[in-house]
C-alpha cells in the first residue's frame, strides 16, 4: 500500500482508540451502561449501529462470491441467513421483545417461563447456546479478517497471524467501551461505508461498459427471475470449473433453483418467527427506549445494512468478473473466490481512496466483532455471575467482570479460529444450516403456544445444539437438508418434553400475555385474563402483521436490487426497483408506521 493509504488507515485506528478512551468512563457506571448504553440512545442511532454491526468482511466476501457465480439471481440466495428476519422484527417481533424490559435474551426467559425448575433450565440453555453462537461468529470473523488483511502486507506470515493481530487490537477498544464503543464505532463505520460504496461504484461504472460485463458472464446472469427446472447458467466457455460448482454432485447444490429458493423461504420464515438470536441483535433491541422505538430501530437497520452494502458488493463483484476472472480461471479446481475482494482493492482502487475503503472494511469487521463480544460478555456477567454467584455486588464490579469476560471471549474466538481451518464459505454454511436451526423450534413455540414450558424449551435447545455440533461431521448432506434434520430433532425434543411435563403457572402465563401481547394459540390464557378484566382484548393484529411482512419483503428486496442494477448499469430495472421501493414504502406508512403510536398507547392504558 502507498504511504497515503497507510496514513489514512492509521488515522482511523487512532480515532477508534480515542473513541474507546472517551466512552470508557460512561460505560463503567454500571452493567446497564456497559451492555446497553444505559438505554439512553435515540432509536435512529441504535438502528444505524445495528445495521452497521450486520455488515462484516466475512459476509461481504461470501456475498461477492455468490453474486459472481449466480449473478442477480444470487439475491434470492441471501435468504440463507435469512436477511429478511429484520422485517419480522420491524413489523412486530421487535416490539414484543422490547416489552420485556430486560438486559439479555436469557433474562427474557423469566418473563416467559417464570422461576420454575423448567424455567431455570431454559435460562441456562440460552446462556450456553449464546456463548456457542458468539464463539462461532468470532471464529467466522477471524477467518474473514485473516484472509482479507494478509495480501496488504509484505511479510509472509500465515493468515492466522494477521487475524490474531486484528482481533487483539479491536479487543482492546471493545473491552473498555462496552455498548457505547459499539455504537460509536458503528456510526463512524456507516459514514466510511457510504463513502466507500459510492466511490467503488463510480469506479466500476467508469471503468466497465455494460457490453464488457455481459461478454464476461453467461446468458441469463443479469436476470432476477427464473423458471422451473434446472438453473440455466452456462459458464462452460468462460470458467468451466463453475459448472461443477453449480451442477456437480459436490457443488453448492442450487441447480434446482426454484426448489431450493422455496426451501430457503420456508426456512427463513421459521427462523424469522423465532425472533432475534441471543447475540448483538437482541442487545440492540433491548437498548432502545421503548417498544415503539424498537420497531423503528429495525426499520433503520434494514436500510443501513442493505443499500450501501450491496452497492459496495455489486461494484467489487463486477470489477472482479471483468478484470480478475482470468486469474480465477487459472486456479483450476482450487479457485478461491475469497481473493476477489483484496485483489480488486489492490489493483483497481486509486491511492488515497484505497485507504478509505480498507478503513471502511476494517470498520465493518470491528463493528460486528465488538457487538458480538459485548453480547457474549453480557450473558456471562448478567446471566451467570449476577444471577447465581453475586446478585448484590457493586455496579463497578459487574463492569470489571465485563472487561475480564470480554477478554476471555476474544481469546476463545482466536483459539477456535486457529482450529477452524475451513474457508469462509464452509464456516458460513455451518452457521446458517447447523447452528441457527438449533434455536428455531423452541423459540417459535415460546411466542405462539401457551402450553409450551421451560422443560420443552430446554430440551429443544440442547437437542438442537448437540445436533448442530455432531451432524455436520458425520452426514454429508446439502445444507438445506442439514437444517431440516436439526430442526426436526429440536422440534420433537421440544414438543415431547413439553407434553410430558406440567405447563407454567397461570400467574406467569397471564403476566406474559398481558405485557408482551403476542398472537397465536393463547385461548385458555386469554379467557383467564378476560375473567379478571372483562375489558381485556386479545392481539388481533395477525392479518395486518403478515400483510406488512409480505409488503416488507418486497420493500427489502428492492433495497438490494436497486444498487445491484445500478452498478451493472441496467437502468430500466434500476428505476423499476426504485419505483417498487417507493410504492411499498407508501403502503407501509399507512399499514405499519401509522399504527405504531396508537398500539403502544393502548398497551400503556391496559397496563
Topology overview:
Elements: H1 3-27, H2 31-36, H3 43-53, H4 57-70, H5 74-77, H6 85-98, H7 108-113, H8 117-149, H9 159-207, H10 210-215, H11 241-247, H12 257-273, H13 280-286, H14 291-330, H15 340-348, H16 353-389, H17 395-419, H18 424-435, H19 437-448, H20 454-474, H21 479-499, H22 506-516, H23 523-532, H24 542-567, H25 571-606
Characterization of the model:
The protein has 607 residues and is mainly alpha-helical. It has one domain (3-435, 539-606): Up-down Bundle (Sodium/glucose cotransporter), CATH 1.20.1730. 76% of the residues lie in helices and 0% in strands. It is built from 25 helices and no strands. Helix 18 (424-435) runs parallel beside helix 21, helix 19 (437-448) packs antiparallel against helix 20 and helix 24 (542-567) runs antiparallel to helix 25 (571-606). It is globular and about 70 Å long. It starts with a helix and ends with a helix. Mean pLDDT is 81; it is low at 598-607.
Amino acid at each position: 500500500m502507498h504511504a497515503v493509504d497507510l496514513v489514512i488507515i492509521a488515522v482511523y485506528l487512532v480515532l477508534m482508540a480515542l473513541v474507546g478512551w472517551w466512552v470508557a468512563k460512561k460505560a463503567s457506571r454500571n452493567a446497564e451502561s456497559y451492555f446497553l448504553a444505559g438505554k439512553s440512545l435515540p432509536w435512529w442511532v441504535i438502528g444505524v449501529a445495528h445495521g452497521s454491526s450486520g455488515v462484516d468482511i466475512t459476509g461481504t466476501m461470501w456475498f461477492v462470491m455468490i453474486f459472481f457465480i449466480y449473478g442477480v439471481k444470487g439475491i434470492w440466495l441471501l435468504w440463507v441467513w435469512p436477511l429478511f428476519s429484520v422485517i419480522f422484527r420491524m413489523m412486530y417481533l421487535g416490539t414484543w421483545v422490547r416489552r420485556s424490559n430486560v438486559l439479555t435474551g436469557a433474562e427474557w426467559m423469566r418473563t416467559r417461563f417464570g422461576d420454575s425448575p423448567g424455567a431455570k433450565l431454559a435460562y441456562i440453555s440460552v446462556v450456553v447456546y449464546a456463548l456457542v453462537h458468539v464463539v462461532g461468529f468470532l471464529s467466522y470473523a477471524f477467518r474473514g479478517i485473516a484472509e482479507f488483511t494478509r495480501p496488504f502486507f509484505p511479510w509472509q506470515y500465515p493468515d492466522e497471524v494477521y487475524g490474531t493481530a486484528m482481533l487483539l487490537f479491536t479487543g482492546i477498544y471493545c473491552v473498555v467501551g462496552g455498548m457505547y464503543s459499539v455504537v460509536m464505532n458503528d456510526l463512524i463505520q456507516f459514514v466510511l461505508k457510504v463513502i466507500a460504496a459510492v466511490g467503488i461504484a463510480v469506479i466500476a461504472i467508469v471503468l466497465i461498459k455494460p457490453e464488457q460485463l455481459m461478454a464476461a458472464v453467461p446468458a441469463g446472469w443479469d436476470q432476477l427471475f427464473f423458471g422451473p427446472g434446472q438453473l440455466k447458467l452456462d459458464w462452460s466457455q468462460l470458467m468451466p470449473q463453475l459448472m461443477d460448482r453449480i451442477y456437480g454432485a459436490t457443488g453448492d447444490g442450487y441447480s434446482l433453483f426454484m426448489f431450493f429458493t422455496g426451501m430457503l423461504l420456508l426456512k427463513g420464515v421459521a427462523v424469522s418467527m423465532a425472533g432475534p438470536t441471543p447475540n448483538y441483535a437482541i442487545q440492540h433491541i433491548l437498548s432502545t427506549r421503548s417498544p415503539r422505538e424498537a420497531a423503528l430501530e429495525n426499520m433503520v437497520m434494514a436500510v443501513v445494512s442493505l443499500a450501501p452494502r450491496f452497492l459496495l458488493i455489486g461494484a467489487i463483484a463486477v470489477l472482479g468478473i471483468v478484470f480478475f476472472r482470468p486469474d480465477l480461471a487459472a486456479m483450476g479446481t482450487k479457485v478461491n473466490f475469497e481473493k476477489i475482494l483484496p485483489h480488486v482493492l489492490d489493483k483497481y482502487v486509486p491511492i488515497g481512496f484505497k485507504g478509505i475503503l480498507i478503513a471502511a472494511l476494517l470498520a465493518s469487521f470491528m463493528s460486528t466483532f465488538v457487538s458480538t463480544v459485548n453480547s457474549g460478555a453480557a450473558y456471562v456477567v448478567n446471566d451467570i455471575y449476577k444471577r447465581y454467584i453475586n446478585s448484590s455486588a457493586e455496579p463497578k464490579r459487574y463492569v470489571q467482570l465485563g472487561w475480564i469476560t470480554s477478554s476471555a471471549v476474544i481469546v476463545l474466538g482466536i483459539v477456535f479460529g486457529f482450529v477452524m481451518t475451513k474457508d469462509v464459505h464452509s464456516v458460513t454454511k455451518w452457521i446458517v444450516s447447523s447452528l441457527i436451526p438449533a434455536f428455531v423450534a423452541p423459540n417459535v413455540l415460546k411466542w405462539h403456544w401457551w402450553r409450551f414450558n421451560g422443560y420443552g424449551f430446554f430440551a429443544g435447545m440442547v437437542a438442537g445444539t448437540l445436533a448442530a455440533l455432531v451432524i455436520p461431521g458425520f452426514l454429508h448432506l446439502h445444507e438445506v437438508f442439514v437444517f431440516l434434520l436439526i430442526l426436526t430433532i429440536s422440534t420433537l425434543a421440544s414438543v415431547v418434553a413439553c407434553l410430558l411435563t406440567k405447563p407454567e403457572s397461570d400467574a406467569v402465563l397471564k403476566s406474559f400475555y398481558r405485557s408482551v401481547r403476542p398472537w397465536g394459540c393463547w385461548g385458555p390464557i386469554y379467557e383467564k385474563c378476560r375473567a379478571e378484566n372483562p375489558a381485556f382484548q386479545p392481539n388481533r393484529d395477525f392479518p395486518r402483521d403478515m400483510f406488512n411482512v409480505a409488503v416488507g419483503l418486497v420493500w427489502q428486496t428492492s433495497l438490494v436490487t436497486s444498487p445491484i442494477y445500478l452498478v451493472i448499469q441496467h437502468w430500466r430495472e434500476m428505476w423499476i426497483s426504485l419505483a417498487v421501493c417507493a410504492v411499498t414504502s407508501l403502503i407501509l406508512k399507512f399499514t405499519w408506521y401509522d399504527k405504531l403510536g396508537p398500539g403502544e398507547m393502548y398497551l400503556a392504558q391496559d397496563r
